[in-house]
Specification:
The chain has 110 residues and is α+β, with helices and mostly antiparallel strands. It is built from four helices and four strands. Helix 1 packs antiparallel against helix 4 and helix 3 crosses helix 4.
Length: 110
């Protein structure tokens, strides 16, 4: 079983709309229940729109928490399908770069 969210969406994510149904509702709602994670999502989306990359270091500075704590928050957002990760060469190792283009989340109670 995949850890990522199975999302049914009549609109494309490129339109900035994420529609969630069924069992995935709780996972997405829980991911959005933290004001810190919502703040991080806004920051990632805004920086991506400006053409900037966002990594753990940027997010740790934003919320003034450790990289380990930020990593935990990001894992929750990723599993809920709210952010995407790409891996790029870093100075010492591979770094994770986060992207988010979701502007609206629709939770459908079926």
């Amino acid at each position: 079983m995949s850890e990522k969210c199975n999302i049914e969406s009549p609109s494309s994510v490129a339109d900035g709309v994420l529609t969630v149904r069924g069992e995935e509702l709780a996972k997405v709602a829980m991911a959005l229940s933290s004001h810190i994670r919502v703040q991080m999502l806004h920051f990632i989306r805004d920086e991506n729109e400006k053409g900037n990359e966002v990594d753990i270091k940027n997010l740790a500075e934003l919320i003034k928490q450790s990289r380990a704590n930020v990593s935990t928050h990001m894992r929750i957002l990723e599993r809920a399908g709210l952010v995407k990760i790409t891996y790029k060469p870093g100075i010492r190792a591979v770094k994770k770069v986060y992207t988010a283009d979701i502007r609206e989340v629709r939770l459908i109670l079926d």
